[in-house]
Amino acid sequence: MSIFDLVNPFSYFTPVYADAPEAETSAVATAVVVASDPVEEDEDVEDVVVVEAVEEETEDAEEEAEAEAEEEEEEEEDPEDPAPAIKEACGESMACKSLKHHLDECAARVEEGSKESCAEELLHFLHCVDQCAVPKIFATLK
Questions:
Q1: Could you give the residue ranges of the DSSP H alpha helices within the chain?
Q2: Is the pLDDT confidence value at 75 over 60?
Q3: Rounded to whole angstroms, how far apart are CA atoms 51 and 41?
Q4: 95: Cβ contacts below 8 Å, ≥ 6 apart
Q5: Could you give the 3-state DSSP secondary structure of residue 91?
Q6: Measured at the alpha carbon of residue 46, what is the angle toward residues 18 and 30, in degrees to the nearest 5?
Q7: Rounded-to-integer distance, Cα 135 and Cα 83, Å
Q8: With contact defined as beta carbons under 8 Å apart, do 120 and 107 qualify?
Q9: What is the mean pLDDT of residues 67-94?
Q10: C-alpha span between 50 and 10 (Å, rounded)
Q11: pLDDT at res. 65
Q12: What is the distance between the alpha carbons of residues 27 and 55, in angstroms, rounded to a whole number?
């Protein structure tokens, strides 16, 4: 006996019959069953109409819920992130000004055709900016 014999992939489907008494089934599942069954002359057509009405009410409720969710999203605006402004201010501060100067000189040499990389200068400058900005950013958090 293998593991596949123990697990039936269709075991989670519950059969729904149109003639069965109403159980806890969704309106959509009932509508699918009733719509897929051909209507015979001695069956009541009212059952189909009732199911369609329930389905329409469900769709209306879903649309109202979506509209309310959209209104809530519009009302709740995310506050502006203060981190970029704080980092820019720290980059212009006296503590990081000399490192920015070295980075700008290296960038000018690279533009003139130098084959060097400014990675070291950039890392030093970003480290200085982070050291300055992190305490200020965390102070602004709630």
A1: 3-6, 27-36, 46-75, 83-91, 94-112, 119-140
A2: yes
A3: 18
A4: 128, 132
A5: helix
A6: 35
A7: 11
A8: no
A9: 83
A10: 29
A11: 79
A12: 6
